[in-house]
Design brief:
alpha/beta; five-stranded mixed sheet
């Protein structure tokens, strides 16, 4: 059975989806350990002065600006926490890698780095390949796993829960593959 060692899902929430938006929360789920970490990110002075806050984005994720300013961790502390998870060399996935790579890049650059030590890959593409490796060949089985993951962890627009949903999808695919391998017919 294919293992999910060193596979992580990541998700960001942001102040806005505009070019001047900035990351306000990051969540990371470890597929092997089942552990989820998330941190509110205190805006840097540059983000506070020149960044864009969108009230519509706040209505979606439910994180108020004063809350991240009060409860958010400084950017260097968030980066240190991420680096301590050992993501470098692993597979880091997102359901929206283009956008999440931007937030990751913005976070590390704000912390004085030239860029992050890893690149976020596409969860959907990885899941499709993983499903095949697990012996799942039908689209229906793939959709069933996605539906089960979404029911278990509904779209909350909170980074930790959204990252956990990605890991749950992979876990459901792994379980479905194991069930297929154990069945007498081995069918889908």
């Amino acid at each position: 059975m294919y293992q999910l060692l060193e596979v992580f899902c990541i998700d960001f929430e942001a102040s806005s989806l505009s070019a001047n938006g900035y990351p306000i929360e990051v969540g990371i789920a470890d597929a092997a350990a089942g552990q989820v970490n998330s941190w509110l990110i205190r805006p840097t002075q540059s983000w506070s002065m020149g960044g864009h806050w969108d009230d519509r984005a706040e209505a979606v994720h439910g994180i108020a600006r004063d809350r991240i300013e009060r409860d958010g961790l400084p950017v260097p502390d968030v980066i240190e926490a991420i680096n301590n998870l050992g993501l470098t060399g692993g597979t880091v996935l997102s359901d929206c890698p283009r956008r999440d790579n931007k937030w990751l890049e913005d976070l590390y650059r704000a912390g004085g780095y030239s860029g992050p030590p890893f690149v976020i890959g596409d969860l959907e593409a990885f899941a499709a390949t993983f499903a095949q490796q697990c012996g799942i060949l039908s689209d229906a089985a793939m959709l069933r796993a996605l539906e089960e993951a979404t029911v278990a962890f509904p779209d909350s627009h909170r980074a930790g829960i959204d990252a956990r949903r990605g890991v749950e999808l992979l876990r459901r695919l792994q379980e479905a593959g194991a069930s297929l391998a154990d069945s007498p017919t081995g069918g889908n």
